[in-house]
Structures are given as structure tokens and as C-alpha cells.
Design brief:
This protein has helices spanning about 15-25, 55-65, 75, 80-95, 110-115, 125-130, 135-145, 155-160, 165-180, 200-205, 215-220, 225-235, 245-260, 275-285, 290-295, 305-315, 320-325, 340-350, 360-365, 370-390; strands at about 5-10, 35-40, 70, 100-105, 185-190, 330-335, 355, 405. By secondary structure, it is α/β, with parallel strands linked by helices. The protein has two domains: about 5-105 and about 185-245 and about 325-405, 3-Layer(aba) Sandwich (Rossmann fold); about 110-165, no CATH class. Strands 1, 2, 3, 4, 5, 6, 7 and 8 form an eight-stranded mixed beta sheet that branches. Helix 6 runs antiparallel to helix 7.
Length: about 400
């Protein structure tokens, strides 16, 4: 049985995701191959809450070609690309069933990523670039490029162009993690051909005057996401929840900053970011998302870094915890199809971590694994913070079993 792992956010599921799933099966030359998606939960890699609940996003994926959806724990999902990639690859590897991995890339020559994966950034140049005020991604690009000796200007431009593409940066980190963990997956890099952008779709959604209007959301998203995914979203908005309220998110951050005199101990707050956040919020005219984000924007810190730091503050996630916790403690199952259920049955026998189908499953493991308890408790807290933004009751996920899609 071929099992293809894909790393996703489905925030929201769009036509490009459907194309990735389709082409991944074509790459392995097996139309019946199981596609296993590992997905961020309440908060995504760039640090913000996902637009819809994870179970709704999982259901849309299962209706549009995926067979199994697993959740990446918060501490790895809402993290820089290296930690995000580490958690995603480890999750796929620990299932014990994944044979292949597929991911989309934007670069002109995907093979350059294999070459870059053999390199480590020049530490001296990295430090110099950071000291000069460069953001970490830009400094990392300069430090990696410097490790190539006697290369042509054409290749130098290829490398720099590759390292400017977010999807290619993640792909590079996936490759490095696959090698580091000795996962043994067959790698399929799929060049993106569709002009699908989750960022553009989110902007469309949040530009609506009435984001809770099912008809207005339908008009905005028609043709940009698959019909089955759209139907799932509209059904949830029609009576289950609303889109995540980013205004309320930013208001919560502002209140937390006011009552926290020292933020330096929280994850991703180093290098003076805590002072920048406090000063920016003090000078912002409101606690509105757009207003505060505009004040926070700076060349030195990327916006995802800033959002991840602020979300860690809301979560109470310390930098010590991030530094100490290097591994996943469980496999959280969000849903499956009929083919996926057969795969899960095999996983039950060969997975290298405990499987959690329902929240109650975790309770049975708390007493014997303190690290699992801490990691899962953090996931529950993240879901409760997002629940308030979605208009859902606290602890609602205790009542929701994994999605079963036909």
C-alpha cells in the first residue's frame, strides 16, 4: 500500500490543494494510493488563528481527495519553518505507514533544493546580517548563498530566488528533516501550476462587510475552492460557527500585553521583539487587527514571527518549553474516509506514538506520560482560545469525534 504524506493548513482548502492531491497520486502511479494529510490545528504556521475550525477544514479535505487527516500539535504548527517542518515530518514518520511525501514548490529548478539541503548557513555571515537589521529569512538566504564557492551569477540568482519563495523554504526544511530523521520517504516535488493563494482567499473573506453572510461568502469563494469544500464551509457558517474574528484576537493580545509586565520569557519574544510589540501597541490608535498590524510591521521582524510571539503570549508558551520539547508525544486523528480507515487500522499496529481519536483518549495517557499531558493540554488551550473567536462554546471539541467521510 502506497501512503503519500502531504503537509497542509487548508486555511482554507482551495483548488491548489486539490491539484496537489491529484498530482501526488499521479507521481506515484497509483490512483488508489492513500493520501495522508498532516494539518495545523487552531493556529497556523504564520501565527494567526485559522479561519475555520480544524474539523470543518478536515472534512473539506476528506471530501476533496484526502483519505486521512492528522493534526500537528500547536507547539509545532504555530512555529518557524524549521520547527514546523520537524513536527510535520516526525508526525508522518511516526505513523509507521507513510511511503512517500509530496509538496508543492514555486522555484524554477526544484533540484536546487536537494543541493541546498546539503548546506548549513555560514554562521558568521548569518550573525552579521542579523546584526545589520535583516530579517532571519533574508539573513539565512545570504548565509546559505555564501557557502557556494565559485558559482555563476545565474546560479546565485537561482538560489536567492528560491529562498525568497515561502513554499520553497518549507520544502527545503522538509527535505532536511527527512534526511535528519532518516524517514526514508520517496520525495515528490510538484511545481505549482494553478494560481491559487490561500492568502488571497482569506483577504477576500475578511474584506466582506458581513463575513457571516453565507451568500456573500459563497459569491466571493465560488470558483476559487472546490464545490464540495465550499459546501462544507457554507454549511458550517450557516449555523455552526463564524469565521475567526481577528479583531477579537488582536484585542485579546492587547489586553494580555497590558497585564504582563515582562514578556521576555515567552516563545519567539527574543532580540528585542517584546519591546517592539509593547511600543507599537502603545502607539496604535485602536486594538483593531489592521491598525495594530500596520504599527507592528517592521523590516527587522517578519509579521509571522510577530504573530507567533503574540500567540505564544496568549497561550502561555514559554521559550524554555519550545527549546526543551523537540518531539511529538502523540498522533491526533481528525478524520478519515473508508480507505483511510483501513490505513488507520494498520497504523494502530505499527505507529510509534499513541493514537488519539477523541479527547478522552488522552486522559488515559496523562498519568503515565507527563510530556504528553503538557503538549495535549496546550492543544486544548489553543482550541479554546480559537473557539471564542469562532463563536463556539468552550471545550466544544470534547463532543466532536473524528470526521468520517464516505
Amino acid at each position: 500500500m502506497r501512503v503519500i504524506g502531504i503537509v497542509t493548513e487548508f486555511n482554507p482548502f482551495h483548488n491548489g490543494h486539490g491539484e496537489l492531491i491529484k498530482r501526488a497520486r499521479e507521481e506515484v502511479k497509483d490512483p488508489m494510493a492513500v493520501v495522508m494529510s498532516v494539518m495545523s490545528g487552531p493556529f497556523v504556521q504564520r501565527g494567526l488563528p485559522s479561519v475555520l475550525p480544524k474539523h470543518v477544514r478536515a472534512e473539506s479535505a476528506l471530501k476533496c481527495g484526502a483519505d486521512v487527516v492528522l493534526e500537528i500539535p500547536f507547539t509545532f504548527a504555530c512555529a518557524p519553518s524549521e520547527r514546523f517542518a520537524h513536527g510535520a515530518v516526525e508526525l508522518l514518520y511516526r505513523t509507521g505507514v507513510v511511503t512517500d511525501i509530496a509538496f508543492g514548490v514555486d522555484c524554477k529548478d526544484p533540484d536546487i533544493l536537494f543541493e541546498l539541503a546539503e548546506k548549513e548557513p555560514d554562521e558568521n555571515i548569518l550573525k552579521e546580517c542579523l546584526a545589520s537589521g535583516m530579517s532571519f529569512p533574508a539573513a539565512r538566504s545570504e548565509a546559505l548563498t555564501a557557502t557556494f564557492k565559485d558559482i555563476t551569477e545565474e546560479k546565485k540568482e537561482l538560489i536567492k530566488d528560491t529562498l525568497r519563495q515561502p513554499n520553497s523554504i518549507l520544502a527545503l526544511d522538509y527535505i532536511k528533516e527527512i534526511r535528519s530523521q532518516k524517514a526514508g520517504f520517496k520525495i515528490h516535488m510538484i511545481k505549482r501550476t494553478l494560481d491559487s493563494s490561500a492568502t488571497a482567499i482569506r483577504e477576500d473573506i475578511y474584506s466582506l462587510e458581513n463575513k457571516d453572510s453565507v451568500s456573500e461568502v459563497a459569491d466571493k469563494l465560488m470558483g476559487k475552492i472546490p464545490d464540495k469544500a465550499l459546501a462544507t464551509y457554507l454549511s458550517s457558517l450557516g449555523g455552526y460557527c463564524r469565521m475567526a474574528d481577528t479583531e477579537s484576537y488582536m484585542g485579546s493580545v492587547c489586553r494580555e500585553v497590558e497585564r504582563t509586565p515582562d514578556m521576555s520569557g515567552f516563545a519567539y519574544m527574543g532580540d528585542g521583539l517584546e519591546g517592539h510589540i509593547r511600543n507599537s501597541l502603545d502607539s496604535a490608535k485602536s486594538s483593531g487587527f489592521s491598525s495594530v498590524s500596520e504599527k507592528l510591521a517592521t523590516k527587522h521582524f517578519t509579521m509571522p514571527r510577530i504573530y507567533r510571539a503574540m500567540t505564544s503570549l496568549l497561550m502561555g508558551q514559554s521559550k524554555d518549553y519550545v527549546e526543551e520539547e523537540k518531539h511529538l508525544q502523540y498522533i491526533r486523528i481528525l478524520g478519515s474516509t473508508r480507505e483511510g480507515r483501513y490505513c488507520l487500522k494498520i497504523m494502530g499496529k505499527c505507529a510509534r506514538l499513541p493514537l488519539i481519536h477523541n479527547c478522552s483518549d488522552a486522559l488515559e495517557l496523562y498519568s503515565s506520560n507527563e510530556r504528553l499531558k503538557k503538549q495535549f493540554t496546550m492543544d486544548l488551550r489553543a482550541n479554546n482560545i480559537q473557539a471564542a473567536l469562532l463563536g463556539l462554546k468552550r471545550d466544544y471539541e470534547w463532543e466532536i469525534p473524528p470526521v468520517i467521510s464516505k
